[in-house]
Design brief:
This protein is α/β, with parallel strands linked by helices. The protein has one domain (6-277): Alpha-Beta Barrel (TIM Barrel). 40% of the residues lie in helices and 17% in strands. The protein has helices spanning 30-40, 63-76, 92-106, 129-147, 159-167, 181-186, 191-198, 231-240, 259-277; strands at residues 6-9, 45-49, 82-84, 111-120, 150-156, 175-180, 202-207, 209-210, 221-222, 247-249. An 8-stranded parallel barrel has the order 1-2-3-4-5-6-7-10, surrounded by 4 helices. Strands 8-9 form a two-stranded antiparallel ribbon. Helix 1 (30-40) packs parallel to helix 2, helix 3 runs parallel beside helix 4 and helix 7 (191-198) packs parallel to helix 8 (231-240). The longest helix is centred in the middle third of the chain and has 19 residues, at 129-147. The protein is globular, with a radius of gyration of 18 Å.
């Protein structure tokens, strides 16, 4: 049994230059260079990152851009298994996410992450967007079902709540959970029990390490091995539930210009545990 491929989120192989932790590398030649950098770091996949602002400027959203993405994927041996999407309550979002499904299908990727970052265990109430989301996602889910694509919900909420959300969908079979090990551990969830409960609904895994969150402070992301994450137990559980999709690095950043060496070190950290487990 072969361990999962280790990949990285788009943008993590490019210096931030004031763009924050998470961004699409939109400078001249930046996103193209990430394929070469991923290969140099020994990685096997890149998860594309799209956002509402500038969505249709992303290469995923044009014929020429998709052709270039697939060319670079072939040249450097870097798979494109998934797209890190987003959620918005704006009316236009329903059209945007449906277009993202079509574009994702066009490059052969099979998972779209939909992040609900306002929904957290420590929030006093669930944001109203949670119930509005089914309406917004209805057409995208219909298209995803026809194309064999999974919509992976990511939120710092209990597995039971995520499963309840999925059960209320018109096409529940389209939905899964994109599980962020660092986020869930930081929020105090029993990760092993949750992964067992979610089972085949786990359609993607993000690897990061974080300190515990409290009512007053959100736990910050720290280098792998310096937070609360028990990756060994999590990976054993993933193996036992038959998880075989890529594991995507979404780790803490370090100094500008060290992105490739950091990615390589993080890949080796995860690879060693996977080798022991698998």
């Amino acid at each position: 049994m072969t361990p999962p491929t280790i990949g990285i989120l788009e943008g993590r192989l490019t210096p931030t230059r004031g763009r924050g932790i998470q961004f699409f590398p939109d400078g001249a030649g930046e996103w193209e260079k990430e394929f070469e950098s991923a290969q140099a770091a020994g990685l096997g996949a890149i998860e594309l990152l799209v956002r509402g602002k500038g969505l249709y400027e992303h290469p995923l959203m044009s014929d020429a851009g998709r052709a270039r993405l697939q060319e670079l994927s072939r040249v450097h041996g870097i798979a494109l298994p998934s797209v890190h999407g987003y959620y918005s309550i704006e009316d236009q979002y329903a059209n945007n996410i449906a277009d993202i499904v079509d574009a994702t299908d066009a490059i052969g990727a099979k998972v779209i992450l939909i992040s609900f970052f306002n929904e957290r265990k420590l929030s006093p109430v669930l944001n109203e967007t949670w119930t509005h989301a089914h309406t917004q996602l209805k057409e995208a889910a219909r298209r995803a079902k026809a194309k064999g694509i999974k919509l992976g919900i990511e939120a710092e909420l209990p597995a039971e709540t995520l499963l309840a959300f999925i059960a209320e969908a018109e096409t529940p079979e389209v939905f899964g959970v994109y599980y962020d090990l660092g986020n869930q551990i930081s929020s105090g969830f029993p990760v092993v029990d949750e992964l067992k409960l979610l089972d085949h609904r786990v359609v993607g895994i993000h690897v990061k390490d974080r300190l515990p969150s409290t009512l007053e402070h959100e736990g910050v992301t720290v280098p792998l091995g310096e937070g609360n994450a028990d990756f060994t137990s999590a990976f054993y559980t993933l193996k036992n539930i038959g998880y075989s999709s890529p594991i995507i690095l979404q780790t803490a950043r370090t100094e500008e210009g060290a992105e490739v060496s950091l990615a390589s070190n993080n890949r080796m950290f995860v690879q060693k545990i996977l080798a022991d487990v698998w």
